[in-house]
Write the structure tokens for this entry.
Amino acid sequence: MNGAAPGAWLIDASVYIFRAWHSLPDDFSDADGHPVNAVHGFARFLLELLERQRPTHIAVAFDVALDSSFRNDIYPAYKANREPAPESLKRQFGHCMALTRALGLTTLADPRYEADDLIGSSVHRLRAHGLRSIIISADKDLSQLLGTHDEQWDYARNQRWGHADVKERYGVHAHQMADFLGLAGDATDNIPGVPGIGSKTAAALLAHFDTLDALLQRVEEVPFLRVRGASQMAQRLREHGEQALLSRRLATIACDAPLPDDFGLARRTIHASTLNQLLDQLRFGPMTRRRIHALAD
């Protein structure tokens, strides 16, 4: 991506909040005695990113639709395999959102749409204005959003890839990611896919048929493919075609989620009094405070 025009940075906050929640001890507490280990870990990540990259346009997307996503209406078992977030973690999500707002960053959250959808809708809006996006997340689902000039960055592993790299990374092109997940499913989100079809088989089928729709329309050709178990595979596709389409629908990132009326990713004015009250509440130490105020200046 060297030489590419500057773009807007879109952060999938939940990835980094959960990582901090699992990796840091819960002996960090706020002024009321509640744990804030995830907040402190998220703040470290965010400050490092802001200090190193100095983005002028940035948004941070949060998942508040943990069990109220529109996908739950389509498929009630969506993400049903996940344990409900404990109240202490939900509280910390709120603190993280307050911190991003206090730092003047555009903060995106919606009770019906997930962070992926808010990022997808932002990418769509930015592209309409000729702007590229840099998506900060390790989530493979988000690679379906990558256009020619966009980029995704797994910040923790320092791995970056663009539209042209998706095939090498996942075995399918960016525009095939939702179809790929429709076939292979996604255990993380409890998306069923087609029983007996894994990622390698799904990639092989899409390499031949290009789309899930074409595959299902031409399923009678599948037994003649040079793929192990092709006949059984064709039968599974006949039996579970509707499930594959449902799974694709669940895996497709919405690009029409509601964004703020004043959607704009330029850093906003930071109000020192609001920021200081929050830092007091979260009991940040002097070094973190200095770093935050340096960014505020």
Observations:
- Strands lie at 8-12, 58-61, 106-108, 133-136, 151-154, 159-162.
- The first strand starts at residue 8 and ends at 12.
